[in-house]
Amino acid sequence: MSTTSLINLLPAAARMAPKTPQEVASALADARQTGRKVVVFSTGHGIPPIGDTSERILLDMSAFDGVEVDPVTRVARIGGATRWSDLLAAANLHGLTAPCGSASSVGVTGYMMGGGIGFMSRHLGLGSSAIRAAELVTLDGHIRRIDAHSDPDLFWALRGGGGGFGVVTSLELNLTPMPRMAGGVLGWGIEDADRVLKAWSAWTTNLPEDVTSAVRLVQVPEGPALTVVVVTAPREEDDLQAVLAPLTDLQPVLNTVRDTDPEAFMKEYSDPEIDPEEAPHAYEHVLLDQLPAEACQLVAEFAQPEGGCGAMMVELRHLGGALGRPSNLGGAMDRIDGEFSLFVLGPMEAVPAMAHAVDILSDYGRGRTYFNFMPRRTGRRTAYRQETIDRLADLYEAIDPDCVIDHPHPISRTASVADETAQAPAAAPIPG
Ligand SMILES: Cc1cc2nc3c(=O)[nH]c(=O)nc-3n(C[C@H](O)[C@H](O)[C@H](O)COP(=O)(O)OP(=O)(O)OC[C@H]3O[C@@H](n4cnc5c(N)ncnc54)[C@H](O)[C@@H]3O)c2cc1C
Questions:
Q1: Which residue lies with its CA nearest to atom 7 of ligand 1?
Q2: Could you report the per-residue pLDDT of 88-113, keeping only the tens digit for each?
Q3: Cys-Cys link to 81, which of 25, 61, 264, 426 (CB 3.0-4.6 A)?
Q4: Residue 415 domain-assigned?
Q5: Residue 359 belongs to a domain
Q6: How far is 23 from 327, CA to CA, in rounded Å?
């Protein structure tokens, strides 16, 4: 079942599926007149934090799904609901790519509104920094082309500010040449999690910044529990294998690292499509600054099938590189304030144990979070600096003072961290 059907399963006060920017403008006018809030969806992947949609107008943007690539200027023009699979395929035809996440079915716009970290992020940086312009329908019904010159504040907010500033009908993106790329996975049993994590953590310390990797401790349904390192670099296979020596010395039972390209890599290693008929999952997340041996041991213990926290996947992404420096192309999110992202996914009944595990591990960071992985509606204080929150809040007040456009994480200038942790977790459609 597609994620469009997932949207169709949601309760709603009304549903609209515009086909043109003008129809988007009239849908927003309807919302203003009826006093109902609008939830904008491209794929429906961002549903969890929004929760109950029964009183909302659902604005299904899935008709805006085109991709045009200009190989000379290296610019892609995409519809507001285009998915990563379509953009990567079209760019790849010209040896170009864009900073994608880990799932082919995720929408480019939703991903970039929240920053965007993925398979090649240490090399390519945040997804949002690739935006060069947007066509935006604002709540007042205007269809506007926003870029750095036309409207610097809105353009800044669109690049990682969390969405809700209007409805994006198209984006123009800078593409990056990718003449060579190697990538794949190294795999061990779950019993090796501790030693692999310790070796991986040490290996990341002086790693060239074009190498991006993550460790995933996964429990495949009806399969063995595994320790997996997913890795990419814009290099030849032999070159990447040489960099991987400290990990391959640990004798993985699986090594699929080889020459590839971004489209092929995504096809092979993407997170699976969501099946809305499956029991809902939940996730927890925090950013970490360091991963000493004792933290690796804790992560490994939490991921064990017996006596762990009940998660289906415990994932650590290595950040830093281009993600760690403020980008001069960056907007409201211009870097990620942490060295590792911890993401834990599991069934709803495992939430207390997963939250406890993340809480313990948060001692290895400063309680910072990354917007796209925040499980609950919060005031965003753990995801942005205070000056960013204030600037975003000023913009929301100017553009949409009644919060007609609902989005995953409404902003609060004053919400405390305690307010955030007190909220119940939302059901998550993110599979491992
Ligand atoms: C399987 C899976 C894997 C993921 N992996 C990653 C990852 O590797 N890295 C990462 O950073 N994130 C990842 N995410 C999180 C994902 O980036 C966010 O949930 C993102 O918001 C999804 O965007 P969407 O358009 O697919 O979802 P939607 O539910 O369609 O949209 C989410 C929100 O984005 C905004 N939005 C979407 N389209 C528009 C539009 N056209 N106009 C205006 N606003 C719009 C709206 O506020 C909407 O509520 C993953 C999510 C899933 C489900």
A1: 101
A2: 999 999 999 999 999 999 999 999 99
A3: 61
A4: no
A5: yes
A6: 35
